[in-house]
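User: Hey, my collaborator sent me this sequence without any context and asked if I could get a structure. I don't really work with proteins. Can you help?
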Amino acid sequence: MSVNEGFPRWFRWALVTVCLIAGFLMRVWHLTAVPPGFHVDEAIDVHLSQKVLLGEFFVYSPEGWGREGLHYYLEAVVLSLTRNGILGGRLTTALIGMVLVGVAGFLTSRLFDADTGVLTAVWTSLTFWPVFASRVGVRNITLAPVLGLAMLAFWWAWRTPPDPKRRHLARFGLAGLLGGICLYTHQSSRVIPLVYGLFLLHASLFQRRVLKANWRGLLLGGCIFLVVVLPLGIYFYQHPGAEGPERAAAIEPLWQLLAGDPRPMAGNLLAVLKMFTIRGDPLFTYNIPGRPVFPGLAALPFYLGAILLLRHWRDPAHALTGVWLGVMLIPTLITVSAPLFLRSTGALIPVMAIPALGLGVAVRFAARRWGRWGVWAGCLLTLLLLGQTGWLTWRDYFGQWASLEQVEINYHARETAVVEYLRREAEGTPVVVGSRFSEDAAPFIVSTAFLGDPPPVRWVLPSSALAFPSGQAAIPFVLVANTSVDEYLLRHFLVGDPAPTEPAYGPAEEPWLLVAPLSRPAEGSPLPGMERPQVGPWFGPPTTELPESPADGLLPAYLPVKFQNNLALLQYGLSSHSLRAGGGLRLVTLWRVLSDGWPGNLAMFVHLVNLHNQIVAQQDQFGYPTHSWRAGDLVIQIHDLTVDPSAPPGRYWLQVGFYERHLPGRWKVTDLFGEVTSDRLLLDQVEVQP
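Assistant: No problem. I've predicted the 3D structure and written it out in structure-token form, which is a compact way to encode the shape of the chain:
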């Protein structure tokens, strides 16, 4: 070979081999353990892929702020093979990430030269950002290779002269097809028409002959593009509010610019320019906050490549790369928290091509200047830069980012450990799990990890409640670390303090899960440590005024008392029947669940009211979410009230009831014969002393 050609052929092949091996290893190593947990966005994507497996087909789903559908058909295939939500979701993006490596290398070799293609592939393989995007099971990574294929088809059609058999029209048609498919990957793809438009504007100035020769192909490709995106357009026309107010709030800098305030957009522009070598994505979820795309020595070839891109702006390949880069950074430019790598995924290939351009030119310059010694120097420089890139990625991703506490929190690592516990030790036995996120995120994550068919789990908020599955003598209680447990529940209904399992889940020094057996309450016995009711209960009267004494016309109720035929009150007890204004009062209630659960947001209100039904103390909560209910379960619930310091001395009524936060009205209270008598139950009277 000539020394002016750059890398020797054997060196290119060696780089490609290392690129494939190292890239694959970085994308699948400990894939279910790093990131540590299962992010809600990952769970939403797997949930939508499950719908595809169940036969539901869609081009767009409004779930999770709105999501285009292409990724879920790809992920559904992998889920059907793995039968594991976490592994299936992340393996899908890992494989897509490997496709991206190949597409990036092949496209840039066609745009520029073989050296640039190989270097782009290796940089895509080893750089932190594309490695990260390939390991998190969210859909945005799909945009990059699909857009790369669309650009490859477009460049193929653009650079091939028209032929009598009109095969060039088919190439433009393929480019239009792939370009349209891009819009089914991620919201940031909606700026893609600008890439084509600006490139054709550039061509009208500097490539008029090529533009004129290809007008039929461009027209055909544009028509096919419109036909492909038509179903998505029809969906948005029929569902004008599909994306909701969150999407509009995300583009607040754009709204402020249109309102005459350019400062947020100017700040974003500076942040986007700094993301490459100075300060990158600020969020823990997708980066070590502030880590740039090209840290250390890798910044040097990036700057050189950027200079070359600007210097050769008239050249069509450089122009296409520059336009592609600039347009695909618009989504992060106009939105909050810039620069966000998640919204910039469409720019991955041109970003990785820039340092490849710079390094390739440097190697060829050395070869021309110093001959064979220059070639060897270029090879050594390449190994140094790429070796540093790979080492920093491995160190920063697996060593630093994965061990950050905020990452464990954002990815619900502690709650996700419940998945592994259930797989190893539950064996179909009901388990009670206590977590701060028991109402929504935690059960959704665990259910999705099991592809919607988890072992029987009762989720509780142990700061106020415990549940006891029916028909079970020995019930394990799994406590997610950093979740508070009320001391009363800990003392009376757990057998010993929750302790780490063997082996521990999570770090041995700070385990993510603690386990203790539950002690089931006796239904017919008084609640331990609480004063029994002196008299009562009574059905709440229909009038707003309450009598001074229960003997004044109140209708007595007899335990168990049913609420909406969903819950039955079995026992209750108070910490005291007398207290001072400003003091605290605790109510403990024991319930039996009468019906299986449903998605909802239930609250139990406890009011301390005067004779005029004015509230002097109140707490609304129920620590056993309805989605976990099974008929026959028992529930211990705690309410702590603080009496208004200005409450005058006298007798006050303690009343309880239920309501669903998203529905009007209260649950009905029924008597022994099932007749509706009230929407509240008076439990007892409490004396407030001077």
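In plain terms: The mean pLDDT is 93. You can pass these tokens on to your collaborator as they are.
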